[in-house]
Design brief:
This protein is of the alpha/beta class. It contains eleven helices and 14 strands. The strands form two sheets. Strands 1, 2, 3, 4, 5, 6, 7, 8, 9 and 10 form a ten-stranded mixed sheet that branches.
Length: about 375
Amino acid sequence: MKLFPDYFDPVSLDKPLLEFLPRDYTFSANIKVHTAGAKAGDLADYRVALLGVPEARNSPASGFAMAPDKIREALYQTARIPRNIKIIDLGNIKRGQTVNDTYAGLTDVAVDLFQKNLTIVVLGGSQDLTVPLFRAYKKLRRPCSLLIIDNRPDLLPSPDKSAHSFSFLRTIVQEKAKILHQSTLLGFQQYLTDKSAIDILEKLYMDPLRLGQLREDISRSEPLLRDADLVSIDMNAVRYADAPGTLIPCANGLYGEELCQLARYAGLGGKTSVFGVFDILPDHDPFNVTAQLAAQTIWYFLEGLSQNLYENPLEQPEKFRKYIVANEEIPTDLTFYQSLTTERWWIEVPPESADKKPLVYSCGKEDYEAACNHQITDRLWRIFRKS
């Protein structure tokens, strides 16, 4: 597919008034940038592609479309990633004549980048852009574990059945794609979430982790992020004090450093192929604080990704310790794996038939300990019921 110049506008940013680091030590000086005077070479030479999507016509606030360059501006002033990881900034996808044209273009771009084995980092734009990104997996018939960080599930009915930013998750569910392997909602706030939405999440075997549960022990989110293929972040999940530039600011929410920790978990997992940050309103963002937090979140994802910690016990059995636990609640023994390198945990799910291979899912040490005590955690129940 011919990505340039048909799909992208080149990066064009004003020089910052203040530079906090020597230029050679900044993020922007250590990546390839598609500008008007410097075209990109062979994309297969890179591991990560940054792209902005200035699209917000399916949301209540057109200002979301102004966010990609604000995030990019803040990201370029961060320090370079400590370990070598080849990154290219492709620029901003050109807006189509209609929002569906933009969707189609974003899906095409994602498919092409997947086929070149690039990890995609998306600077949004409104969160309904998750839909065309998901459709790229669908187009390739590639399994997708979807993880959403939000303060409420976007499951509202859409009057015209479009992928509205408040109903995009319903759109994905209604497509009934078999490739939707797992789905997770992190950081939602119960007083903002109707019980009917929780019931829908349970019917979908979606792993929900409330803000309070997350705050009790943030490491509980690590197995969920380790399994995630597509991570979609709504900045409304962050409390107003840390992210004022949002459409529906909330007094409570994630702290900025917690969001960065979640992003780093996703990067360390090594499985995430799309990482997107959405729903920033620059007009409501004094001193670009929210754009800065989004940039730092992306930086921590890339820093984690640079460490190359992808592990799979079925592919590298010699690097894992294996435990088999009998449990009367499940009609088969439970097989757990622990990495000898990182001490992370996985559980094996037997194949549906003899001609298929078993699957492994990330889990935590607490899941293994519960099984040893003849208990099954909610996480394991969902895994076995979904499989």
